[in-house]
Protein: Pyridoxine/pyridoxamine 5'-phosphate oxidase
Amino acid sequence: MENLHDKRKVYEKSQLIESEIKQNPIEQFRDWFLEASENPMISEANAMAVSTVEEDGCPRTRMVLLKAYTHEGFIFYTNYNSRKGKAIEDNHKACLHFFWPNLERQIIIKADLEKVAENLSDGYFHSRPKGSQLGAVVSPQSQVIPNKEFLEEKLKELEKVYENTEVPRPANWGGYIARPYEIEFWQGRPNRLHDRIIYELEDLDWKISRLAP
Structure:
């Protein structure tokens, strides 16, 4: 057994103070996200974990890319027939998680998910590189396949079919918007006395509280 007891890091880069934060969590997210995006040590600031609950009651987490955010919520795209898509269909709640270790920060978002309008899915799908579009058509995401060559052969076939024409967006591929009702901002601090500020939606207003680390 490898002993990890001494693997510790001192967190001291910043702090989170009530007098300095935004009253709306989306605006606070925007400030932190811009800092993460501009940090040369963070290659994909929009990488986030999405956790859903499957039929057996066990959460399942995977990394996806945030593609847009507004005051209404956070948008990402996927195959609706994937494991995450089926989990969301059965239980519309999910947890999003951003972790930026170079800034010693993380954000935890509890949200209700729903599909975005089809025109938004169409617009994003056709903004992607053609190879990515074909990959979305080819892959029966989360299903068992016989081997790697199965997908590669299908891709070659579709490359010929759509060589000189637009790739139609599959009906089972599109976006979700995660509408938050709770957002927690975590800032690492010395002696493990981390700053945790939580926003909770009550009616149409956000209640702000500090949590013990």
User: Anything to note?
Assistant: The mean pLDDT is 95. Residues 56 and 170 are 29 Å apart (CA to CA). The helical segments are 25-38, 83-90, 118-127, 130-138, 148-161. The first helix runs from residue 25 to 38.
